[in-house]
């Protein structure tokens, strides 16, 4: 956190000053470790084993916050007897289908539920990254559940959880993660001792957690711990995602993602969502409890925002105009399709995949095989100059005179040259005022897309083709201003917020939205940001003049709530759990919820409220159910549906690992998304043979001094000089083993690429003892490329492409490699070196690691190094 | 009349420099125990003061690629990797299968690198000393020879580790030798008690550079003038905080009235001692030290040498009065002798 | 300036007659130093902004003089950042004023070996042509079973996450109406 989010880290220092104990878990000792009270060196890719150990520690010692757990989580809920656990199946859950490597989730359901309420099978869910839809709400599940609040029923979630994590002992944590037991116990003790009625503990992760083939389950494990300890919905608690880009939260809320529409509505699927009714029912699930019962309203308001007057009840609000998904259309699928010549044109909008995406060579070869490419950026980035300067020029794989891709570079406006909102990592929207005009031809994306749309609509004005109706009927009249005819960002924000069609009055809350076409709203979760016609995101009442919650600085979705599910900060009767942790509570005199934040609950629903049997939607949520966007109102220790790789997290090894999974026969995530494509070669891992060809673990991350793919830092002199060269951090032990010298060169080889770096031999990197072996790890920054003031090989070139099944994010935080002294070869010699490694690892004809390895004995046959 | 302590000893420098009723003396307290080594100070300083780039080489001194305070780096964050206990923390590598510490060896290798900072003397090979001093204990073990790293078994493995970071800056001495020797009046004492080079006066003679007991002030090659931290004199004038302190995410760099900062620093040291960090000590806070106390002082977690700071700096013009006295005496003796000689001849 | 005031401005005169006999302070202060003031104080305008790097969302104040950004620093009013910035945020002025910034359209024709210049309007129209052509060539009305698809898989887009919400909204809206499905951003990565 001190490395990548230094200003956020001031609050950790603030907490430390007040006595908080800070633990830092990382493969290498970083600037965060330097200030932590305890540092745990971990083998990259084993976080679930560590956190699973904490879950077991809590359950074994009955250290959970029992009153919270019973009332607010699904610990008491009983699961069907069809469910079978990884304990009994060598690391698989019940319902695994070998044919398509997915789970049928039916056997995971709650007792008494006839079936899971999803219309989509697991494979479709994987291909369409359906897990992302759950960023604002839980997966659909019926509200009525059978519960045993004594937690004794053998099939209640509490007991299932206990059994599932039984083998995550401190000894096992040590064996898997390389973390000594004493260190693990120090962490587990501190975490549990500092949670409960009077205290809360916070879990902070950076989004390196998401870049794993089991990334979603990492976060699930963290959430389970925090729920067990009563650390959710309470001040000083939570699972805090430190996201890495100024509006990365915004770009999922108002997504430019193939599978989502604004407000986490799914992009329609050709088979499952033929009609508007089918689409909204698949979201709302008639009978489900909670706020998602109003999905039709949110969907109709979006369609009205898109197609305006043309969208009417009679034509299902133009639902028919929507393009339909048929499967995976994600960025990695696209790149492979580019290589295969299926894609004509590509827009890159402030994004540099030649450096920033996994498998850089695949990215560059894909771009070299397009009809046209539009790059909009501040600087000449690697993705614009691949045809000139890519490493593949040297190897002859790209030659300018044979590369047909037509490239348009359009300069972009910077953050001070346009106005608009960013949504930061805590869902807070902040409006930026424009300071100056952009220089020369530089323009905002708002300008580019508004005018591109305008020109395209003009070209098609006379068209009679049905396919062009969606463009011609589009509500595309935004006021413009200034010498560049810039569209008004405030007008767009007002449309996002939504308004009443008849009066034009901006909506104050999504509860004012109607499903009859009388209101319009582009992103229901953002409704309220323009309440009263005032740009609430532009509010800047100084923090020093407000409470700690600072509700009048910017605007947070939903409804300006700063802590989600904050009803959980009060006990079931509505009283604060303790004075020390008072946040939101029931005011019996006024008969309303009140507190320091906007209560995340219906304001006047008393704690004693109990729904009628079969009540659905918001009315189905009881007065003591804080998790109002979950179908059963409970925090999920166990996910009966919606998480494709299992109802509970399970440690699987990274796809590329030097060790056999010590916990189960099942080696890696059996449901991971795999691309079999000639360019996507993977290093072998146990139980496959020849994994010893790539004996070392490498991991990559950020430096304080640089930003992502370097386009905004290697181009900036005062930053470039602070970290001027690509380097690799190695332990003294590995340096001795491989003959590396401090400040000398080394190169790393995988079956995709070889990259070179200067060597920093440092005590901050340590070997680990894993399952009786010594495992060496190395670390690299991923910021470097071939353009800018400072250049170097790109670490992301080393990775292959394997994705998490829930959200289709790639595993680019851990891989295996060889480390050799000296610089890498050049030209054809470089290609030969990589091919030779592939040959030695038996991977010349493409072999992919088996999805299921439960038939292979536990003991590793691959221990010789 | 100049103050009796005008050149040495405790003194409030602004009134001594002719300011009637000056504002309180302002300064920096840099608490290295909360520094996260982010280098925001280095960048914020460069952005505000328009300081040019200072070289693009990897120095290998941990994460320090700036190397030293130079004319082109007015803030410099030193990084010190040490196989020592961090006091408050659990030993970082206890139980891990690692060998002995390598940091002295890598530090020695790093110390042999240099970069063209565009300044003179800039960053010389073998400098700064700090990086070369990372060692197993508080005492400097000298420059270890290069040996193959990592020879060792778990038995002698490293367990403790700490990573010290410290943002260094001009000390704005009470007795500033740079100022005392400046022949043009370019260096002057501001009403805030700080020491500033006036770029419209400096003629690049370079006397100040050898006078500085900390090796802070430095010449820029392309214009020959001397440059260093101004404690953002322009910002102070309108009541603003210097750029580095304004940016510092963790309040490692604190700006304020020197008297108040000294109290705050003493309390912080006491607190750290209480929390099991006995190594915490102040540096440059004492008005009775060799420079009359620094306007920019530090809380350190090790000996000053480890961070590249001189252990006992003394203003190089301390002996100026004595020297003047002796020189005067010599001149007078000479004059008398000459007179005697003349008189004698007359006689 | 009269002779008298010129003479009184002479540092030696000030040193001999003033309170600074050693000439180390008040008497040595140059005209430049006397005139010095913070450029934030003399800025024409100040915009309230947000740092474009990570997702912490630190407040920035952007000072403008003569139409140019003259300083960017932390906004002390922000309850998130309290006026502080990391090195990247602190380098924001260098980012937006960098001499390396590309400010004109550049064009590389197929099989070209050099960049060429191109007018912005021409570029925009050429892009519109290509979008429409790619869309027509790759349009899919229905799937094999006759269910609507309404899409093109011939166009891709990958956006960074430093785009504004309003920009992402228009991007998604236009591409969706166009039938372009393969719209992705950094959040997938």
TrEMBL record, chain B:
It holds the Pfam family Fer4_11. Residues 26-56, 161-192, 193-222 form the 4Fe-4S ferredoxin-type domain. Keywords: 4Fe-4S, Iron, Iron-sulfur, Membrane, Metal-binding, Repeat, Transmembrane, Transmembrane helix. The chain crosses the membrane at residues 323-344. The keyword Iron applies. CDD domains: FDH-O_like. It is found in: Cell envelope. SUPFAM superfamilies: 4Fe-4S ferredoxins. PANTHER family: FORMATE DEHYDROGENASE, NITRATE-INDUCIBLE, IRON-SULFUR SUBUNIT (PTHR43545:SF6). This is 4Fe-4S dicluster domain-containing protein. It comes from Micromonospora trifolii. The lineage of its organism: Bacteria, Bacillati, Actinomycetota, Actinomycetes, Micromonosporales.
Automatic annotation (TrEMBL), chain C:
GO terms for biological process: anaerobic respiration. GO terms for cellular component: cell envelope. One of its GO terms (molecular function) is 4 iron, 4 sulfur cluster binding. InterPro entries: Mopterin_OxRdtase_4Fe-4S_dom. Residues 44-100 form the 4Fe-4S Mo/W bis-MGD-type domain. SMART domains: Molybdop_Fe4S4. It comes from the Bacteria. Its main location: other. Its cofactor is [4Fe-4S] cluster. It is found in: Cell envelope. Pfam families: Molybdop_Fe4S4 (PF04879). Keywords: 4Fe-4S, Iron, Iron-sulfur, Metal-binding, Oxidoreductase. Belongs to the prokaryotic molybdopterin-containing oxidoreductase family. This is Formate dehydrogenase. It comes from Micromonospora saelicesensis. The lineage of its organism: Bacteria, Bacillati, Actinomycetota, Actinomycetes, Micromonosporales.
